[in-house]
């Protein structure tokens, strides 16, 4: 693997222990994937931020990297943490957990990482442009960056994303190269799609098809979708990344580089029935009473928060209702008066975190959400049952 003089110096420790460790990680990765060289990156998103997932071993690794002089060289933001960093007490987070979580975020901050704690960094200022090489580690955001923004990233893990931040480099392989970005499966959508639930279901169905042929790399080329909002696309990305492991899709009229490709010969068609079946498969226990309602997977946009405020205005929720979003988005909601309306209803903002990475195992029995990704992880990790509904129906469920 060809390294520049500066990269070689990093590897030999001239830039300190942490940068050396970071370059060792990237060099090993590049060697495994036969990368010819490193590429400069312009943006990094680090996942694996919740103390619930990282534990003491993760905290120790990050502390060592910070003590070793690690310093981000490019704009680097963080995925959701295990709690709202300002309002954790009212969400029922234990003090011990909070202390460890704050130390963990502090270790990132000492390295110059911006502690945004969101899985939608593209909504709060970390917005790479078409063709930029980046190193992102949140699967839904990776899919969004590649497919909607046209930036280029592999699905990084937490350590390789941190290593990219500290060196400003990533090995040149996978989705950084033209070859891997070619579509190899056409998806013909033969139904009208509207709302985050429908787009999430679309991701489930395409993802299932991709998984069924997982011996091959799959990049779907989706045709037949007339329009898609930012919120619908973030839902599709989260679901497609979860159910199919996708890092990139092409969609006519959406993906900046889709016009460079023609739809591949191998094709399958998606009808309304397939979407309905996918949604039904997530609702096996529809009659069990819901005791937890959560919206914001991926983190909510200001438009979604405005809609929640509209639906909750002057009403009272009857269940625990978490609204998960990035803190800067919550601050916009504060200024626009949405927070006051929402909190008057009894619903709670859970900024910086989400229903999957917060340590809430065993606290609830059935969660209602519009997110296919949240259902997948909540049933697995947090052992909730789930009910998958449309965005508006989820809000109405909280009032029922
Ligand atoms: Fe984001 Fe948590 Fe969903 S990290 S994509 S809200 S599982």
Key words describing this protein structure:
binds FE3-S4 cluster, globular, five-stranded parallel β-sheet, alpha/beta, four-stranded parallel β-sheet, 14 helices, 400 residues
Give a written overview of the molecule:
The strands form four sheets. This protein has a five-stranded parallel sheet with strand order 12-11-10-13-14, with helices on both faces. A four-stranded parallel sheet has the order 8-7-6-9. A three-stranded parallel sheet has the order 3-2-4. Helix 8 links the parallel strand 7 (220-223) and strand 8 (250-251). It has 400 residues and is of the alpha/beta class. It contains 14 helices and 14 strands. Helix 2 (17-32) crosses helix 6. The model has no long low-confidence stretch (mean pLDDT 95). The chain has helices at residues 5-11, 17-32, 51-67, 95-110, 139-149, 158-167, 196-212, 230-244, 272-281, 302-312, 327-336, 338-344, 372-382, 391-399, and strands spanning 38-40, 43-46, 75-78, 135-136, 169-171, 185-189, 220-223, 250-251, 267-270, 292-295, 320-325, 348-351, 366-369, 385-388. The chain is globular and about 65 Å long. Helices cover 42% and strands 13% of the residues. FE3-S4 cluster binds next to helix 13. FE3-S4 cluster is lined by residues 79-80, 119, 140, 238, 297-299, 324, 354, 356-357, 373-374, 377.
């Amino acid at each position: 693997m060809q390294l520049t003089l500066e990269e070689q110096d990093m590897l030999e420790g001239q830039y300190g222990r942490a940068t050396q460790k970071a370059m060792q990680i990237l060099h090993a990765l590049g060697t495994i994937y036969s990368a010819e060289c490193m590429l400069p990156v312009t943006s990094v998103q680090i996942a694996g931020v919740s103390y619930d997932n990282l534990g003491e071993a993760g905290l120790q690794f990050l502390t060592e990297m910070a003590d070793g002089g690690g310093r981000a060289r490019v704009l680097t933001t963080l995925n959701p943490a295990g709690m709202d960093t300002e309002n954790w007490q009212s969400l029922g987070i234990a003090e011990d957990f909070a202390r460890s979580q704050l130390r963990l975020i502090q270790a990132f901050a000492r390295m110059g990482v911006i502690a945004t704690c969101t899985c939608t960094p593209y909504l709060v200022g970390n917005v790479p442009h078409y063709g930029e090489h980046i190193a992102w580690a949140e699967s839904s955001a990776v899919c969004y960056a590649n497919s909607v923004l046209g930036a280029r990233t592999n699905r990084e893990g937490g350590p390789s994303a941190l290593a990219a931040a500290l060196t400003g480099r990533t090995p040149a392989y996978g989705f950084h190269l033209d070859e891997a970005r070619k579509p190899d499966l056409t998806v013909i959508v033969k139904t009208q799609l509207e709302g985050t639930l429908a787009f999430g279901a679309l991701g489930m169905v395409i993802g299932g098809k991709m998984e069924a042929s997982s011996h091959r790399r799959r990049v779907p080329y989706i045709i037949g979708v007339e329009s898609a909002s930012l919120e619908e696309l973030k839902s599709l990305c989260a679901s497609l990344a979860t159910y199919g492991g996708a890092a990139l899709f092409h969609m006519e009229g959406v993906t900046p580089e889709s016009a460079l490709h023609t739809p591949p010969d191998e094709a399958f068609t998606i009808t309304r029935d397939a979407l309905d079946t996918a949604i039904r498969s997530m609702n096996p226990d529809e009659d069990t009473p819901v005791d937890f309602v959560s919206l914001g997977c991926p983190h909510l946009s200001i438009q979604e928060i405005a809609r929640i405020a509209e639906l909750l205005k002057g009403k009272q929720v009857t269940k625990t209702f978490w609204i998960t979003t990035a803190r800067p988005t919550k601050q916009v909601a504060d200024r626009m008066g949405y927070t006051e309306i929402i909190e008057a209803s009894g619903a709670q903002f859970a900024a910086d975190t989400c229903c999957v990475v917060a340590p809430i195992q065993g606290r609830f029995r059935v969660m209602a959400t519009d997110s296919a990704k949240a259902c997948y992880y909540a049933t697995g990790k947090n052992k909730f049952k789930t009910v998958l509904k449309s965005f508006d129906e989820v809000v109405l469920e909280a009032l029922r």
